[in-house]
Amino acid sequence: MEKALQTMIDNMPEKTGKSLAEWKVLLQDQAFAKHGEAVKYLKSEHSVTHGFANTIVSLSKEEHNTPDDLVTNQYKGKESLRPIYEELIRQIRELGDDITITPKKGSVSIIRKKQFTLIKPATKSRIDLGIKIKDKPITDRLENSGPFGTMCTHRVKMSDVSDVDAELMEWIREAYEKAV
User: Model pTM greater than 0.85?
Assistant: First the structure.
């Protein structure tokens, strides 16, 4: 968390009369269709300044996203890629019962004891699959990690469910086996 945001959160009780946790509880009981409506409510009904109101509403929303919501939001406008994601998850689950699937705002981490795969809808027509397999040679299909940096060692670009094939699953299995 950036320092300025943390300072704002720390100062919230003094400046607004409530802690962030207390504001989140208050907002849970409200049904706002838009971010701006919640900000306006805090400003008009609780005399919170705009900066604090915006921060409170933004941070409150983050925690209301279920894992399913996070995945759904990743594929908004990219719905044609969702079947690729679903097939990847289906086959990855077959690797073992010690896998944790962790959706985040922009990607889904697949973890054993360590993260071994990362699924990210990169464009409207492509998923980038990050895989962590040290000492595996780069190929035309199994590219260098690209935008994943050190989180993964390789990247596979996927645009169709048929890309979830035996070769890909063998790479994922290898990464899974090494993630101990």
Answer: no
